[in-house]
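Dear colleagues,

As part of the handover before I leave the project, I'm documenting each prediction I ran so the next person doesn't have to rerun anything. This entry is a single chain, and its sequence is reproduced below.
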Amino acid sequence: MFRPFLSSAMVRRLRRAGAREVAVCATGLLALIFVLDIGSGASLSFSPFYMLPVALCAWRLGRGATLLAVLGASGARVLDFYLMRQRDGAAMLLYDLLQSAAFYGLAALLTWQVRDLVQRLLRHSSSLQRKARLARHRHRLEATIRRAVLADVPAIVQLTTLAGEAGGFDAAVTDSARQATLADAFRQGITEGAAMRELWTGGQSVVPIEFWVSEMDGELAAYMMVLGLDGNKGPERELHAVSVAPRFRQRGVGAALVNFFCTHYQHRSLVVACHAGSLMMQMLQRRSFQPLGDHRGYQVMARS
């Protein structure tokens, strides 16, 4: 704002300056303009330049300091007016004081308006940049997601084992015999697209099954298992399991898989069973999932 009058180095220094330094600078600028005004005589007036310290205080300091700057600038202008034209009476001086205060007060109000506008634009720009970065990061993560193939089964079993050790799955998945059974079931599911499951309503049935993996840095970062809810290949799909490798956690990989589940199956009724209050539940709530009920200690979340 002050670039036409101050060097770029001074502008940068003012931006870093504290309130006391800004106040000293505004006071010194006000005194300098007053000395120039007095020294120039009646033929030349520097009164418009009193807006500079007023605007500086309005931009960087509070309303109290700005009011003092307005009063100081008005008083300096009236004093110069009085010294140059001593024949004018008190009424004229009072009129000039009020006129000056209104003029410099308006300059302060305009400065506040410009400052607020600039700050809103900066916040908006920062918000857009942050959203753009998040969108680019999300797109990069979504680009890593693909359908699982048979070669992924050992890594999927390993991720399931890690999740079981952390309490995310049944602890039985850490048993070697159980892992071998899982590997066979996963291979069958990937090959045939169907698997046997226990229905929530009781009994068992063959349902559709799909595996999706996220591959990053040449290794499997995460996977998710999606199941149908009944043997009639109904419209519902359940996000049955999600597991992220430890070194890829806290990087948005799990959220990317959940986003993919919501978008890829958006024309179906979606169901997820999760622990109440978990991060998964929070993610689902942000994606318009609603509580449906409890099932074996899990909170069932659904979205139509």
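The mean pLDDT is 86. The chain has nine helices and eight strands.

All the best with the project,
I.
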